[in-house]
Write a structure and sequence with these properties.
Elements: H1 9-12, H2 34-37, H3 53-69
Length: 70
């Protein structure tokens, strides 16, 4: 998961990440405005290797799915 002001997943992809379906590549799941996702993220300073990402990613995925179904 990464944030960008570019809505195009190909041009917004950070350097070092490779989009694709091969080994070592990342797939594009979807996009959503940051103002919808920000409330789902933990407070600043708590995101890092020790943070439990699964609940955050599940919340973001649920928000994206609800947005797509609307």
């Amino acid at each position: 998961m990464y944030a960008s002001n570019d809505t195009n997943p190909v041009t917004a992809c950070p350097a070092g990440l490779r989009l694709g379906d091969g080994l070592g590549q990342f797939g594009h799941y979807g996009t959503a405005p940051l103002e919808e996702i920000a409330p789902l993220l933990p407070a600043a300073g708590k995101i890092g290797p020790s943070a439990k990402a699964a609940p955050i990613l599940e919340a973001v995925a649920a928000a994206y799915k609800a947005r797509a179904e609307a």
